[in-house]
Amino acid sequence: MQLQRSSSQDGELQFHYRWQQQGQTVDFSFQLPEQSVQQHLSSFRRYSPQLANTLMRQALQQELGRRNTAGMQVELPPTGSPFPLKVKARRAADARELQQQLTAQLQQARQDYLHQIYHTELRLQPNRQVIMVDHQRILADSLQDLLPVAAALQQKFPYTTTREISQFLLDWLQRIPYQSLNERSQSSAAGFLPPLQLIQQHRGDCDSKVVLMAALLRLLLPDVPLVIVYLPNHAVLGIGMQSQSSDQQLRLDGQNFVLADPTGPALQPVGEITARYQLYLQPGIANYRRL
């Protein structure tokens, strides 16, 4: 796929893609404000356990400074070590109450940090609590910035079906160079790129491309249900649309989702998923999140 990028004098970044599809030349162009690209989800960061621990410790020390802990002893773990803390007091009830309050403060500080950097904590099968990129929130917060791309798609396809627009997005995204990343359920965001950064850098891993594709579908087809499906070292998109007999599907919460994999470089059509992942596409086994 050929990509031409340029900057206009009025602060617009221009993107023009061209590729061959079944012997035909396909063109796709749009403009994005340079300021939007530079500021897009600027607080997104890689999760750092060490920084999380430091912020939790600071929040705890601030809380202790506001409390009267006379007659009590609060034991903190060594710097860099994980919590929990220990509280001792003459009355066991007092110790329990203070420990519960301080623990709640620690948890709030941790959640505040995760929210700030666009991460979340999820429980995945089989009974694993993991910290990962908050794909749902990143999608929601990217919609405004992606309006110019959606408008270009709407102009290109004024009348289209869910399958047709999904297939075009696959054809485009699968040709954007793939950037690998760590295990999906243990992501530190080392390679995840929010949508506009993916477009600007012209690279992305599987969940980066899934979020971009899902966001554009959300803008174009707001009533179509979407899910991100987490697989070992991979992620794909589930689209709630009319299926064909050959489609790989997953039934979730009483609804069928046709699967699509925008990762590339393999040019897989809507409804086709690599065979090695099909074992994990079973109700009750597959990990997913609605988008």
Strand content: 15-25%
The succession of helices and strands, N to C, reads EEEHHEEHEEHHHHHEEEEE
Which structural class do you get from the secondary structure elements? alpha+beta
- Portion of residues within helices: 25-40%
Rg over CA atoms: 23 Å
Name the shape in a single word. Answer: elongated
Topology, number of strands:
12
Sheet bearing the most strands, described? Answer: 5 strands, antiparallel
Number of helices: 8
Query: How many angstroms separate the termini?
Result: 29 Å
Low-confidence stretches: 181-188
- Roughly what is the average pLDDT, rounded to an integer? 89
Q: Main sheet: which strands, in order across?
A: 10-11-9-8-12
Summarize the structure in words:
The protein has 291 residues and is of the alpha+beta class. It has helices at 34-39, 49-66, 92-116, 135-142, 147-156, 162-173, 195-201, 206-220, and strands at 2-7, 12-21, 24-33, 72-75, 86-89, 119-124, 128-133, 226-231, 234-239, 249-252, 255-260, 287-290. It contains 8 helices and 12 strands. The protein has a 5-stranded antiparallel beta sheet with strand order 10-11-9-8-12. The chain has a 3-stranded antiparallel beta sheet with strand order 1-2-3. A two-stranded antiparallel sheet has the order 4-5. Strand 10 (249-252) and strand 11 form a beta hairpin. Helix 2 packs across helix 3 (92-116) and helix 4 (135-142) crosses helix 8 (206-220). The protein is elongated.
